Amino acid sequence: MVTETQLANLRPAQKGEVRNPYGKPMGTRSIKALLRQIVDSNVEIEEPDGSKSLYEIERAIWLQAVRDALKGEKNARRDIAAYLYGKPVQYIEPIEPPETDEDKLERIQNRIAELDKQIEEQIEAEVTARVEKILQDQVQN
Question: Do residues 79 and 105 both lie within one domain?
């Protein structure tokens, strides 16, 4: 069941009303800044030959990604390729709206007009050929 206090929190703040009077504490660092500090620090990594080397964490992460990619891990290969060459662009073809009855009727009428024109051209060509044949026959007689 919803309490009266919970309902009060759902109402928008009035003009001049402060809902969070203390706000974010001073000196609070963002997660991005904390992560950057950690990544910029150093870590000791055991090499494949057994020796130990000191690397920046960022470099160690990429070294591990390359090792994983060489082992055949698809995600590591994909991530490295994306950083080196960029992610491939995925083209999405627009979805055409469904054909309306008016569009269908217009398409059919246009097709009928095309067929009528073709028939007229065929008839005209046939008539012309017959007339020429008749004229040739009359010239020969």
Answer: no
CA distance 49 to 43: 17
Nearest to 52 by CA among 41, 62, 43, 61: 43
- Can you give the residue range of the structural domain that contains 141? 100-141
Is the CB of residue 79 less than 8 Å from the CB of residue 60?
Answer: no
Q: Classify residue 43 by burial, with Cβ atoms within 10 Å: 0-12, 13-18, 19+.
A: middle
DSSP state of 1: -
25 in a structural domain: no
pLDDT, tens digit (0-9, with 9 covering 90-100), for 57-113: 888 888 889 999 999 999 999 999 998 999 888 888 888 888 888 999 999 999 999
Does residue 120 share a domain with residue 84?
no
Pull the structure tokens for residue 89.
Answer: 């662009």
* Cα distance between residue 21 and residue 64, in whole Å: 46
85 and 107 together in one domain: no
Domain boundary among 90, 109, 127: 90
Q: What is the pTM of this model?
A: 0.41
Task: Name the amino acid, one letter, at 85.
Answer: Y
